[in-house]
Specification:
The complex is a heterodimer. Chain A is 65% helix and 10% strand. The two termini of chain A are 69 Å apart. Chain A folds into 2 domains: 319 residues, ABC transporter type 1, transmembrane domain (ABC transporter transmembrane region fold), CATH 1.20.1560.10; 245 residues, P-loop containing nucleotide triphosphate hydrolases (Rossmann fold, 3-Layer(aba) Sandwich). In chain A, α2 packs antiparallel against α3 and α6 runs antiparallel to α9. Chain A has a 6-stranded mixed beta sheet with strand order 6-9-10-3-11-12. A 4-stranded antiparallel beta sheet of chain A has the order 2-1-4-5, with no helix packed on it. Chain A is an alpha/beta fold. The mean pLDDT of chain A is 84. In chain A, β11 and β12 form a beta hairpin. By secondary structure, chain B is an alpha/beta fold. Chain B contains 19 helices and 12 strands. In chain B, β1 and β2 form a beta hairpin. In chain B, α2 packs parallel to α5 and α6 runs antiparallel to α8. Classes of the chains: A alpha/beta, B alpha/beta. Chains A and B meet through α2, α3, α4, α5 and α6 of A and α2, α3, α5, α6 and α7 of B.
């Protein structure tokens, strides 16, 4: 928490300091009121003039108004500081996540990073806003009130102290039992969420398997657990409020009761001492309440802190995780349009087995390289080494004759057009999606039309009433799988890269569209190097070079004809898709 | 169209009706809350009396016996009040927690009872938030706000009565100032409401953006869009900041303002009271009582205001909960007695016509007719959007046809119970669905009596055996979000699940799209074994998968435009032939 608070900007720190000063002054005004109260009582008892009463009234009014103005100012500062703090942290966290690599993303999981950026920060902001006011006010109030009653009567002080201790201990005990249980409730909520989400996403399967009851039973378990934990919790929690009330009221009662005895113990002859004692009792009863209240507020804050602590830790954890992949400094290259793998091996972090071992190949400018292989043979991993989603554990990956690690990110990304396996679109117009980001190609209408046409998206884009201005919903939810894939291809094409990488990006296209797309690519982009990962033989049979992967190893490299002759794995894949006649 | 019920009282009435069985005990709890409040009104009065006794006997000797009498009485009152408070809270918490448990259960069950179309208009996140957030908001609202409002109102009214009984002119002054305060509070509350809405809205937009950018992280990077994205984010973040501090400020300022009003009436009472006292109209003690009452009189106002806000939130939640609970359900089918015992597997589609209920003008399936003989392997092919998956959904009765009918062995599917239709089909869908749990749980899903041998056989047939055995815990390995498992392996698992189901008919909707062709061949052999003598429906982009089908239905724009075997269709040289030949088009 402290670590995270260091992220506060100077402006907000100043606000907090100013807020502290305001609170101190405000407490001063608040604590003046009981004094005036005594004055008033004296005036009434001695039948003072109406003017005197009015003047005290005006002073009281002044105090309350001053205190109110200060409180408003303080609220303003606290609100600004807390919101500014969350603004800074949110920005910092978002920037950081944008900077970290795929490895770190996967470690945290996207869902968890989202909650950290949204919920956790909101949580902290609430605590800071609330805490700022109470945390500053309570100690000042407590200390000031204690000073006012100090030395007046040790008996009454002892009673007050005893009550403070008893109340605080009760609250702390209850809270320290309840808070761990709150965490259990949080976990159970997650579970309930998960089971319900599962049911929703798999609604067709649930119906198809007639598994409605199965799901209901599955849901019932965490739901019932949650109720039981909560009931247990509330039994204890129900104690807090009445205990505090009883404590406060009890304290006032005890002070008066004990006070009466104390006054009476003083000899009747010493009337001055009796009067002092009596007024002390009155003052005590007021200030003691302030002391108890401040302590209770402090206890509450300290009890809320652990929850914020958890959130703060979750945020710090992300901020402290440095990206494994660092930028190089080279922006020049030796060749154009080449990709070369030299004895590349790769294993995912936290796993012992190599995902890829000893892969070597080279593609030249304008050539098409295809990668084919069984499910889980490492095709996606292989191409993801080119844009450095991951770095090779051994060997080197060269683009245009330079190791990819040595390039600055911008230089490397300018050379590449990469289409991911799962099509990703963003909210905005089709144009915004195609011209997402920056490249060396100009973002003009001509380039847009070309990219849309080449990716075969024109066919459906033209049918839209507003064409390329058509709005794409968040995550492309209003597009079909095939449409999304075509638009994400258009996005890569619009960058006019030297090297295009398609990671199984034709899977949602029907054969006709797939064929037309490939035809267009080979006719219009003959200078562009293409690397294609695919499942269908028909997609890749005409490639200049085909790499056949099997369990992370190259089992064949060559053209379709060569591989048909000398690669068993390839032949098997091919014959599973095409009849002998078609292969001839 | 049902009338939209958005007034807060309406939603709370529905909650009341929902909890009617525990109404008695709730009223008991509320009475306790009121009693507890009445006792607090007695407190200050008695304390004041103690002070008077002390001050009276200051120079002549204090009547300690009288003080003790009041002290004992007050101690009892305070203890009783605490006890009542405890019991009240306890009852309310337990009753409402039980209610939320029941509610959650019913909401979860409801998911499986609403027709599919419901999910077209309501997002998943929305339903989830009703199950968790809304239920807990309602529960907390009821446990805390309701008793608070009752006790605060009791205290308010009690004080008011006591004040008017004691001295009506001073009571009037206090009341006027307090009313003024109330107007002020209402004004602030209605203003801050706007900022709260703005805050929720800007936060929602920001969260959506964050979700999108994190999910598309790799694309953002590779497109060199980081700077642009950061700019956009900064804009959204600034909007959140703005709405944030405004709403925070307004809600934070309520408390001090209430204090001002309290102090204001306090000062007024003192001054006005003193004037009256000097004129001899009232006694000195009246002022002391009033000073105490004014305090007790104004504090409940904040509590009532806060309680009302919470209650409003609770009622909004209740409204959303009941909206879902009371939404239209799938038709009741308990009276349907038609059963298919020995299924042969003849399926006919008889002039089926269908459009989604929310867009009745857009006809998805125009006039679909086909006859499938028992044991046939039927392939449905066609471009995206032709209505292939819709046909399967109609067959499974996930949606109901607009006109025409589908029969199984001559019996219309609408005459059968839904679960009986489902029983007849094993199904593998385009979207693989696995849940967090062990591989075994995922495979055996809702089936009974599956032995380990069966699991082994099925996994072998799907080519999953090596994968499963390579895992440290084998079938008991837990699949979770962080488990690295490829799209193809996921698909294999769902296929294995359908194989275990061993249903008389099969539906495969793009079941092998992410599986490599060698594995597919393996599965196909297993499937062929499995589908022998069973009617099966296959949807696939890869035409190689369906070449050996007994009947190929070629769909386009919601109609069957060609049908026949592969050879027949190739001979026709129509749309199918074009589709098929395009895989070999010279390219690259």
């Amino acid at each position: 928490m402290i670590k995270l608070l260091k992220n506060m900007r100077r402006k907000e720190v100043l606000m907090v300091l100013l807020c502290t000063v305001l609170v101190a002054v405000q407490v001063y005004f608040d604590l003046r009121l009981p004094d005036y109260m005594t004055d008033l009582t004296t005036l009434i008892k001695t039948s003072g003039a109406t003017a005197d009463i009015l003047s005290v009234g005006v002073k009281m009014l002044g105090c309350t108004l001053a205190s109110a103005v200060l409180a408003v100012g303080c609220g303003y500062l606290a609100a600004k500081a807390a919101s500014g703090f969350s603004f800074t942290v949110r920005e910092k966290l978002f920037r950081h996540v944008m900077d970290i690599g795929s490895e770190e993303m996967q470690d945290f999981s996207v869902a968890s990073l989202i909650t950290r950026t949204t919920n956790d920060i909101t949580q902290i902001q609430m605590i800071v806003a609330m805490g700022l006011q109470m945390m500053i006010k309570s100690p000042i109030m407590a200390v000031w009130a204690i000073i006012k009653i100090l030395g007046k009567s040790w008996e009454l002080s002892a009673v007050t102290a005893a009550f403070v201790v008893v109340i605080c201990v009760t609250v702390i005990t209850v809270m320290s039992i309840c808070i761990p249980r709150f965490r259990i409730v949080q976990k159970l909520t997650d579970q309930i969420n998960r089971v319900a989400r599962e049911n929703l996403t798999g609604i067709n399967v649930v119906h198809a398997f007639n598994a409605e009851q199965y799901q209901n039973d599955k849901f019932n378990k965490p739901s019932l657990d949650m109720m039981n934990v909560q009931v247990k919790n509330q039994k204890l929690f129900a104690l807090v409020q009445p205990t505090m009330m009883l404590g406060m009221n009890g304290l006032a009662l005890t002070i008066y009761w004990l006070g009466a005895a104390l006054v009476n113990n003083i000899a009747l002859t010493d009337s001055a001492a009796r009067l002092t004692m009596f007024s002390d009792v009155l003052v005590f009863s007021t200030y003691a309440t302030y002391v108890v209240m401040s302590f209770m507020m402090l206890v509450m804050i300290f009890m809320l802190l652990p929850q914020a602590q958890v959130s703060a830790e979750r945020i710090s954890e992300v901020l402290e995780r440095k990206a494994n992949i660092r930028e190089g400094s080279v922006s020049e290259c030796k060749e154009h349009g080449t990709v070369e793998f030299k004895n590349v091996s790769f294993c995912y972090p936290h796993t012992s087995e190599d995902e890829l071992s000893n892969i070597s190949f080279r593609v030249n400018r304008g050539e098409t390289l295809a990668v084919i292989g069984a499910t889980g043979s490492g095709k996606t991993t292989l191409v993801s080494l080119i844009p450095r989603f991951y770095d090779a554990t051994e060997g080197e990956v060269l683009v245009d004759g330079v190791n990819v690690r040595d390039y600055t990110f911008d230089t490397l990304y300018n050379k590449l057009g990469y289409v991911t396996q799962k099509a990703v679109l963003f909210a905005g117009s089709i144009r915004d999606n195609v011209y997402f980001g920056e490249s060396e190609a100009p973002a003009d209408d001509e380039g847009l039309a070309q990219a849309v046409e080449l990716s075969q998206a024109k066919e459906f884009v033209d049918k839209l009433p507003d064409g390329t201005q058509h709005h794409v919903a968040q995550m492309g939810r209003n597009m079909s799988g095939g449409q999304k894939q075509r638009l994400s291809i258009a996005r890569a094409l619009a960058r006019e890269p030297e090297i295009l990488v398609f990671d199984d990006s034709f899977s949602a296209l029907d054969y006709r569209t797939d064929a037309k797309l490939r035809e267009g690519l080979s006719k219009q982009l003959h200078d562009t190097t293409k690397i294609i990962v695919a499942q269908r033989i028909s997609t890749i049979r005409h490639a200049d070079k085909i790499v056949v992967l099997d369990r992370g190893e190259t089992v064949g490299i060559g053209t379709h004809e060569e591989l048909m002759r000398n690669c068993d794995v390839y032949r098997e894949i091919a014959t599973s898709q095409l009849s002998a006649a078609e292969l001839a | 169209m049902k009338k939209k019920n958005s007034n807060p009282v309406g939603a709370l009435k529905r909650t009341g009706a929902y909890m009617s069985s525990s109404m008695g005990i709730i009223i008991f709890a509320l009475v306790l809350a009121a009693l507890s409040a009445v006792m607090t009104i007695i407190g200050p009065d008695k304390i004041g009396k103690m002070a008077t006794i002390m001050s009276d006997g200051l120079f002549t000797g204090i009547d300690l016996a009288a003080i003790a009498k009041i002290g004992v009485f007050l101690a009892i009152i305070y203890c009783l009040s605490a006890l009542f408070g405890f019991i009240q809270h306890y009852i309310m918490a337990v009753v409402t927690l039980k209610m939320s448990y029941r509610m959650r259960g019913e909401l979860s069950e409801k998911i499986n009872r609403v027709p599919q179309k419901y999910f077209n208009t309501t997002s998943q996140g929305d339903i989830l938030s009703r199950i968790t957030n809304d239920v807990s908001t309602l529960q907390q609202g009821l446990t805390n706000s309701l008793p608070t409002i009752i006790s605060a109102a009791t205290q308010f009214v009690g004080c008011l009565i006591m004040m008017f009984v004691t001295e009506w002119r001073m009571a009037l002054v206090a009341l006027c100032i307090t009313l003024l305060g109330m107007v002020l509070i209402v004004a602030i509350m209605s203003k801050s409401q706007r900022y709260f809405t703005a805050r929720q809205k800007s936060l929602g937009e920001l969260n959506g953006y964050v979700e999108e950018m994190y999910s598309g992280h790799e694309v953002v990077r590779i497109s060199r869009a980081v700077d642009k994205v950061l700019d956009h984010f900064d804009g959204l973040n600034a909007a959140v900041y703005d709405a944030n501090w405004r709403s925070q400020f307004l809600s934070g300022v309520m408390q001090p303002l209430m204090n001002v009003i309290g102090n204001l009436s306090y000062v007024a009472v003192c001054v006005f009271g003193s004037v009256l006292a000097i004129n001899g109209t009232i006694e000195f003690g009246v002022i002391v009582s009033f000073i105490l009452y004014v305090r007790l009189f104004t504090t409940p106002l904040t509590q009532i205001a806060q309680g009302m806000t919470n209650l409003q939130m609770a009622s909004a939640s209740a409204h959303r909960i009941f909206d879902f609970l009371e939404s239209e359900e799938l038709g009741d089918e308990s009276d349907k007695t038609e059963k298919l015992d020995a299924v042969r597997g003849a399926v006919t589609f008889d002039h089926v016509r269908f459009s989604y209920p929310d867009s009745p003008d857009k006809i998805i399936i125009k006039d679909f007719s086909a006859e499938v003989h028992p044991g046939q392997k039927v392939a449905i092919v066609g471009p995206t959007g032709a209505g292939k998956t819709t046909m399967v959904n109609l067959l499974m009765r996930f949606f109901e046809v607009n006109s025409g009918r589908i029969t199984l062995d001559g019996v219309a599917t609408t005459d059968l119970r839904r679960e009986d239709v489902h029983e007849l089909f094993g199904m593998v869908l385009q979207d693989t669905w696995l849940f967090e749990g062990t591989i075994r749980e995922n495979l055996v899903y809702n089936m009974e009596g599956i032995t380990d041998e069966q699991l082994e056989t099925v996994c072998k047939a799907c080519g999953l055996d090596k994968f499963v055995h390579s895992l440290p815990q084998g079938f008991d390995t837990v699949l979770s979000e962080s488990t690295t498992i490829s799209a193809g392996q996921k698909q294999l698992l769902t296929i294995a699940r359908a194989m275990l189901q061993n249903a008389p008919m099969l539906i495969l909707d793009e079941a092998t799209s992410s599986v490599d062709t060698r594995t597919e061949l393996l599965i196909q052999r297993a499937m062929d074994e499995l589908t022998k003598g069973r009617t099966s429906f296959v949807i696939a982009h890869r035409l190689s998968t369906i070449k050996n089908a007994d009947l190929i239905l070629v769909m386009r724009d919601g109609d069957v435009i060609e049908s026949g075997t592969h050879e027949q269709l190739m001979e026709q040289n129509g749309f199918y032939a074009e589709l098929y030949n395009s895989q070999f088009a010279q390219a690259s």
